[in-house]
Amino acid sequence: MKNLFYILFVTTIMIGCGANKGYDSVDADSFAKVIANEQVQIIDTRTPEEFNEGHIPNAININIDGEDFDAKIAELDKTRPVAVYCRGGRRSKEAADIIVGFGYDVTELSEGILSWEGEIEQ
Length: 122
What we know:
Layout: H1 2-16, E1 24-26, H2 28-35, E2 41-44, H3 48-53, E3 60-61, H4 69-74, E4 82-85, H5 90-101, E5 106-109
Parallel strand pairs: 1-5, 2-3, 2-4, 4-5
């Protein structure tokens, strides 16, 4: 009985800490490898103003705080994976949770574009 409580406790902690979040959260080097695949749909979840200041090439801007976020996500090709990022990682994690719920295979840039050392497009 003691073991059962221990297993339930550990499982609860792991779920609460995001251990089974449904998407991959990776560093900038790993993210670069993911988006090197031309099939990947790259989503920048920042505001249009932030996006216009500089973004990862081939990214499309779908502002997580925009009223039409869910509708725009639903228009993506579900047969292709999605790579998502924001400025520092908070918004992209929130977006990744939502996008996974739509049935997409998602990779998230854990530290956001602030950690990105690759090319930036304006």
